[in-house]
Amino acid sequence: xxxxxxxxxxxxxxxxxxxxxxxxxxxxxxxxxxxxxxxxxxxxxxxxxxxxxxxxxxxxxxxxxxxxxxxxxxxxxxxxxxxxxxxxxxxxxxxxxxxxxxxxxxxxxxxxxxxxxxxxxxxxxxxxxxxxxxxxxxxxxxxxxxxxxxxxxxxxxxxxxxxxxxxxxxxxxxxxxxxxxxxxxxxxxxxxxxxxxxxxxxxxxxxxxxxxxxxxxxxxxxxxxxxxxxxxxxxxxxxxxxxxxxxxxxxxxxxxxxxxxxxxxxxxxxxxxxxxxxxxxxxxxxxxxxxxxxxxxxxxxxxxxxxxxxxxxxxxxxxxxxxxxxxxxxxxxxxxxxxxxxxxxxxxxxxxxxxxxxxxxxxxxxxxxxxxxxxxxxxxxxxxxxxxxxxxxxxxxxxxxxxxxxxxxxxxxxxxxxxxxxxxxxxxxxxxxxxxxxxxxxxxxxxxxxxxxxxxxxxxxxxxxxxxxxxxxxxxxxxxxxxxxxxxx
Length: 489
Ligand SMILES: [Zn+2]
Prior knowledge:
about 500 residues, 5-stranded mixed sheet, binds zinc ion, disordered N terminus, about 20% helix
């Protein structure tokens, strides 16, 4: 009796003692400073601002500022002591003198030093200042694949002073990625540091060796797996003749969406040329090589054995300037010039998407989680999104099954139609979750391809809308133990 009472007392004491410890732990877990920002992208010329909410969990010395991509403070927004609670601040995208900051990505940084113990914590958020939004109907529906060319073991062009094209491409690509993300767009970037893209090394082309082809193949693989809307490969150039200079943008026309490639190339090239012309100023003018057709690996179609999974979306490869040209190398070494090039890519994405025509996106919401039985219908929930500029009417979602040999299917042969459903009318930026009934084919490993068709039967994949793909295992039929033989006769 006594013993059990004691045991009870211990239990009580323990739990009572634990309570304040637990709540103390919660307080300790709270960050000193938190930052939330609304209003990105800030469109230059519109009377708008970034709204900042800075939350302090205890009194602190607080400094809030806007910093550019290169780490320079462009505007102090707050500097002084603050009590626990929320501080609301606004930034109009102007510097201390009232002038607009350059278009580009900015980091809003809140740094707090606690009055109690002097510890310093920071919170930050990237935002974008631009001339325009990207697909304002629903920027979150858009995914842009940014591919800084070369990297790691692959230098690309090298200037006479040792400047590597790989480093320049990466810098421009990171600026562009930050800017797009700040505009609410999803970015898949093939590399964020000076490293190979095919890392850890994987055999991707099927020839049994891991080499430069696999390094190239890793780039479309990333974009395709993300079902990106666009593919931008960022490069700079070199030539034997040191006087050769100027940007060029390559595309490949022999794709189902070749005319879209051409349009994207035109707008990227025009923006790069205009940005360099304006930013450099003076008597120098970029030589405009225009848009050029070339079957670069990341642009061309199915071409085995080296290329089995081509990019499934409109894409271009831009050669910005020449490292072999002393004037252009000096320009490329200026952060402001690389920043202007990133802004040009951003503007090109925005302008292209504003007029691109039809495009659909998909997301798999729900499907069977394990093997299914042949011929017994299963249900899939698929979100379908209008990412184009015109209303979708009388479209259908078709589901095909192909025997699955690879990480995804880029070329359809021997497909079996296993499901189909009408797509309701969708305005640009609208989405709907559809239920589609799929009748599994015979036992085996399959890939289901979800591909919309317009009213004339044109596949969305041919317009450059990457298909949704899902693996499906159809189990061997389980043989029922044969019932006791009925009397025959
Ligand atoms: Zn290159």
